[in-house]
Specification:
Keywords: Secreted, Signal. The protein has about 80 residues and is mainly beta. The protein is built from no helices and 3 strands. It has a 3-stranded antiparallel sheet with strand order 2-1-3, with no helix packed on it.
Length: about 80
């Protein structure tokens, strides 16, 4: 987010090769902790997930030395 406005603009770089992790507990009480790497388009997906417990899942990205961190970006692409 080059201008740090929290919106993906055409001049913003795609975050490729970033580690994204999902953690939490599924509805059966099983701990979930999966990590994936974004593709060339900055996309990622998690497979084999079932519904979470009432607390939901948390998705985090691991900062990379390649990219500068800034304000929270309120955009993501999740596929079921």
């Amino acid at each position: 987010d080059v201008d740090q406005d929290g919106v993906v603009d055409s001049n913003d770089a795609l975050l490729k090769d970033i580690t994204v992790t999902i953690t939490g507990t599924d509805k059966f009480g099983q701990a979930i902790n999966q990590s994936v790497t974004t593709n060339a388009n900055g996309e990622f997906s998690f497979t084999g997930l079932i519904e979470s417990n009432a607390d939901g899942y948390t998705i985090t990205q691991t900062p990379s030395a390649t990219y500068q961190t800034g304000n929270t970006l309120h955009w993501h692409r999740l596929q079921a």
